[in-house]
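Hi L.,

As promised, Enoyl reductase (ER) domain-containing protein:
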Amino acid sequence: MQAIRVHPAPPASTPYSPSNPAPSSALHLDHNVPIPKLSKPGEILVRVKATTAIRDMLTWPETYSHEYAIIGNDISGIVTEVFSKDCKFQPGDEVFGMAAADRAGVWAEYALLNEDELALKPKSLTFDQAAALPLSAQTAYEALFDHGGIPVPSVEEAIKNMAGSSSQKDHRVLITGAAGAVGIYLVQLASAAGVHIVAATSSNARNEEFLRGLGAHETIEYSRLENYRGAFDVIIDVVGGEVLAKCWDYVKGTGVLVSVDSASFNFVEEHEKRGIRKDSVRALFFIVKGSSQALHYLAKLVDMGAVQSFVVRTYPVSKAREAYDHANGRYSGRGKLVLTV
């Protein structure tokens, strides 16, 4: 099969690592890579149709767990083989999902996944649109529901909430980076949960209409957040830096502060050193785990029209370097950069 692999650093140079990440030129489209083989119950072989390019993938520790690693986590495709007859999927099923962070490996024609990492693809989405969902939308799902403590609405409740009949309107949620790749799903899922949403953004002129269309009740630029001291039950941060540091001022004393910004993995400890942490606030950073339950729920919301998928641009897998560089630059448009395989 063909696969995009991370080639080692040239001889006599410093090996690539998270502290010395490989450049995009280390990404090579290799041919005649062995197709993965099923080896245990629960494993599924998927013919990959689409995946995504994500910022900073070449800085992740998992990328350097072995030489010639195949990267990539988001996936949509077609099941070609299952290990067990009692598997909940069968060859020919159209699926989407996310390979665990410690395995990745979907920038290839075929990929091995566990059945609990997949769900049936939403019928209303193309493979490209389905691939844009799993990592970002599941991050939003876990941030709001698993860690933010907001109850997961049924699909029927979600539809009613989005129509304005929620009983949780007094529950206030701030989302920073609301127009970004994760933020757009945070806003949509928070709208489905029926909470009052304040979407923070760098530019109201550019993003207000879009974010209100996703369900935000208010949009605000970061410089104006000073008026919201102690106002929020839950804050989900996707920005980090000083925006995250100021969030301690905006969360209620008994509230929840969650960051999904990868550079903020130790923010609680660092902010404690700076004397800005509130002990009464439940604060945490997390890395998305993913589950078939979350994927199935998201697929139902998509097919009911409660969640939209966003694709900025699609690249063929032969243009993986260009796609990765695009993901790491500042680009216009909303959503994910997709690789078709």
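The chain has two domains: 3-135+289-340, 148-285.

Thanks again for sending the construct details.

K.
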